Amino acid sequence: MLEKIKSNQILLTTLGIFVLIILVVGITYAGFSKTSSGGNNSISSGTISMSFQEPSNNVVITNAMPTSNGYSSATHFDFSVSATAKSAITIPYEISITEKSGNTLDPCNVRIGLKKNGAIVSGFEVAFDPSSNNGTKATLLSNNMTQFFVGSKPNIRKRACDLESSSIRNGSKVLIHDSITLTQSGSNYTATDNYQLFLWLDESYEMPSDGSTESYSISVNVNSNIGAVGITPTEVYVVSGTTMHIGSTLPNGVNGRSTPELAMQDWLDITYDQETRPFYLRHVLNSFNEIEESYVEFVVTEDMANANSGMVAGTYSLRGGDSGASYATNVDTIKAAFGYSTNSSRCTDNGTNFSCSVSGLSADAYDSGYVSAYGTDRYNCSVDVGGSSSCDRGGVV
Fold first, then answer.
1. CB 384 within 8 A of CB 320
2. 3-state secondary structure 10-41
3. What is the pLDDT of residue 166?
4. How confident is the model at residue 203 (pLDDT cuts 50, 70, 90)?
């Protein structure tokens, strides 16, 4: 029961923010989906998904009374962290808080409690009253957390001001670094951790004598560096007339080369004309060797750049199958390669399709998601609207 102390009141608010940030270093660069309705915030790849489930209402504690045991309050912020993957893996994650602007209460006066799956998390134990016979108050620790000893077991209450800064979420303070281990459920592997966050006033806090109101508000964040799981993408380079699809493994007989040079050499086997061509497909594969992203890459050689004023030698990448989202980037890539700023006449812009051509090399991008690169003889590599890709001889869609 929360009690009112005359006209003094303290407002402690936990706000579950409607954003879940998952750092996906080393997994993939596409295939993510986000939702932010109904309190279910998630981000996922074709390999791993995690979500942060929060209640629809904020927790507000008013007229709070300083206490040594905030767990006795029925008011807390509930949230859960869930994960799904295709194998039995352990995913590390971090729970942190971000202090909102406008706070007027010193965070050193705020104590934090955290329960995981119904049990108090180590480091968030409630201290015994030092004036009772249950414990003896010790000296302050180096990090200014007050420690009490009951027998040989220390009990530590964490203050908001003592939390360490997060290294993966700027401006936030770490509650815990944890991990979730997935177990099989049907064809997938899943797990969920349930949390309760408590806030209360330190018992040593002195209420304002002028009847003013102080407040302290935070947001709760869950971040995961999934790259730490050890799942890393594989990039392969392909020249093949066989159609390949995002979400599928490379078809039988299609060689995924380790370098672009090896892929371009495969043109010799396709055309039998002893000519290599300066374009190919680049696929990003997940840990199950499924294609998660497909690109058309083309090479502007030094000879080509010297023969065509404004062209810039280098390797250029066009992302395919991404309707609308990558169109502007693809256009900028083609412009840079073909020297559009000084030689716009070699390019055509139809609003929804942009293309540039010189002798021996052309490149196209459509806002539908189609991209291609091709030579004068019409051999080409392309990724279509649905993410299907191949290299063959034909026209340009």
1. yes
2. EEEEEEECCCCCCECCCCCCCCCCEEEECCEE
3. 84
4. confident
SS3 194: strand
3-class DSSP assignment, residue 337: helix
The helix (run of H) or strand (run of E) holding residue 381 is: strand 379-383
DSSP character string of 111-149: EEEEEETTEEPTT-PPPPPTTSSS-EE-PPPTTS--EEE
The C-alpha atoms of residue 351 and residue 109 are separated, in whole angstroms, by 59
Tokens of 98: 């971000």
pLDDT, one tens digit per residue, over 107-125 is 888 888 899 999 988 888 7
Q: Mean of the pLDDT values across residues 70-79? A: 74
Instruction: Write the pLDDT tens digit of every residue in 123-144.
Output: 887 654 444 444 444 333 333 4
Plot region of 240 (φ>0 → left; ψ -120 to 50 → alpha; else → beta): beta
Tell me the pairing of strands 361-366 and 347-349.
Answer: unpaired
Q: Which class for 26: exposed (0-12), middle (13-18), buried (19 or more C-beta within 10 A)?
A: middle
User: 59-61 and 90-99: which strand pairing?
Assistant: unpaired
Q: What are the residues whose beta carbons fall under 8 Å from the beta carbon of 395, sequence distance 6 or more?
A: 378
Summarize pLDDT for 303-338 with one digit per residue, the tens.
999 999 999 999 999 999 888 888 999 999 999 999
Tokens of 111: 């104590």
Q: Which tokens in the block code for residue 251?
A: 């078809």
Per-state percent for the chain, helix, strand, coil, to nearest 5: 10, 45, 45
* Chain CA centroid to CA 318, Å: 23
Q: What is the pLDDT of residues 234-281, one digit of tens each?
A: 899 999 999 999 888 899 889 899 999 999 999 988 887 778 899 999
Q: What is the pLDDT of residue 365?
A: 97
Given a cut of 90, whether residue 60 has pLDDT beyond it is no
d(CA 97, CA 394): 56
Measured between alpha carbons, how far is 185 from 104 in angstroms, rounded to an integer?
A: 47
Beta bridge partners of 15: 219
